[in-house]
UniProtKB/TrEMBL annotation:
Stretches that traverse the bilayer: 59-78
Membrane-protein topology: Single-pass membrane protein
Gene source species: Prolemur simus
Domain Cytochrome c oxidase assembly factor 3 mitochondrial coiled-coil: 46-92
Name of the protein: Cytochrome c oxidase assembly factor 3
GO biological process terms held by the UniProt record: mitochondrial respiratory chain complex IV assembly; positive regulation of mitochondrial translation
Amino acid sequence: MAAPGAGDPVDDAKSGKAPFAQRIDPTREKLTPAQLQFMRQVQLAQWQKTLPQRRTRNIVTGLGIGALVLAIYGYTFYSVSQERFLDELEDEAKAARARALARASGS
């Protein structure tokens, strides 16, 4: 007789419980090459099953980040084109040069 909770499929089917997979650590437990190959196949199948959803999510995330970058880039150009303080500084510098030349030539 199996120990209670051992997961005997016949006993579990009678009691209404479904057997479930147990987590194992392949580095600690000695597994046969066939078991390791089966684990790789299952992992590959799970990975391929979630691949389209992950790809879609990655594309949406990339487009969102790209849109944010373009928005920041566009806003930067827009705000810099509205700034007139450099023009005012250049006008003041021209006036100061003109005054300096007038003083130099008038002396």
